[in-house]
Amino acid sequence: MIRRNTIPFGPQHPVLPEPIQLRLVMENEKIVEALPAVGYIHRGLEKIAEKKDYVQDVYLAERICGICSFIHSQNYCQGIEELMKVQVPDRAKYLRVIWAETHRIHSHLLILGLLADAFGFENLFMRLWKVREQILDIMEATAGARVILGVCAIGGVKRDIPPALGEDVLRRLDDVERQLPELCDSLLKDYSVKQRLIGVGVLPKDKAHELGAVGPVARASGLKMDLRETGYAAYGDLDFKMIVEESGDCYARTVVRVKELYTSLDLVRKAIKRMPQGPISVPVRGAPPADEVLARIEQPRGELNFYIRGNGTRNLERFRVRTPTFANLPALLHQLTGCELADVPVIAICIDPCISCTER
Amino acid sequence: MLENVAHVTLEQIPTEVWKLKTDGYRFVTMTCCDQGDAHDILYHFDKNYQLKHLRIRLPKGTALPSVSAIFFAALIVENEMQDLLGVTVSGMAIDFKGRFMLAEGAPVAPLNKSVPGIGIEVQPKVAVTAEGTVKS
Q: How many domains does chain B have?
């Protein structure tokens, strides 16, 4: 009879950007069971949100994640706007798309770089992150900050992108796009890289649905699910096309993210070119009524949900956050079961785990 | 503002959740709010971007039947509710016994209203009149 051993993978591990522990029950080199242990960076953010003014919570929501921060504040603002029946100006919707999609590009470049690092291709990791710096430069030029932008507000946005700056952003995006094919070929066509990704961590379509997978993890398994299709903000005017792959392995997840880089570049370009003139925000008075809303948005890792309940005062009755990594944890456990120990870093990184988001 | 909310009883939960699963709905998440003597619990499901919700008012001290046998994805949110709001969930596929999100020595059910926030500066509550003006 094969003896079973339990190996703690994390919470501190070279491949993990943030602390999470996976308790792996092994039979020789094969994983027969995996359990998560979280809570290392739980901050009690939902409790803080109830104690603060609902306007202060915009800043709080933006700090849930240090990668896709703008999208968190956007989702919070959209939720409050729905609750308070605030009509946001069209120009603000386009500006939100521009910053949301630049966040998606930098987030995807970040995780693709970390993936390259996980399978030992350090040069590719550094080159992907070099391109990511250019995206951060775009955010600095347009919003005055590189990650925590602080430009989203209830009723619109706080900063505009004038036409000359828009032209500059388009030039910078062209430069980014020129560098991508060589890097993407290394990720998708290199023999060694394919050996590490193809057939690894397979998540079939039916399992992805049953386990509640979201984002690139779900789309790589053939699930047609991207909230941008619903047309929130200005997506309804930008001819958005979803990226879906079928094989459900780590390679398919990489393909989805690589193709989404191009989709996001395209969306930013269209948003800049089609952005209407007009105000960028409307004043909002009063407080959220005693009502509830489930605000949803497509974050780089997938569907992000904020349940927001008002009570007629400036303090929220409840603010609940369900992040995509939280939703993808059951799918990760399924992928790990039956795999080899050596594949754990690649599988774990391929769900693009954001633990700060998950634990709040 | 939530639409498609169905109120269910404790006994109806497994049947209603199973019905939604067979109808092709995806389990999104659950939300739990402290309402003093009870917890207001919502189950959220999605199909083709259309949401459906089940709502139950669970008196404190009553155990909530787990739906993790139907949707395994419910396992982590049920464990989180058990940790952060003190809801007892019976029959979970894996029960972390209150140690999923919180470590030993952490406050018990910290998201309940009766637990003051630690190190949080509490903002004064203000009322809003029908005209939309704020009175402190």
A: 1
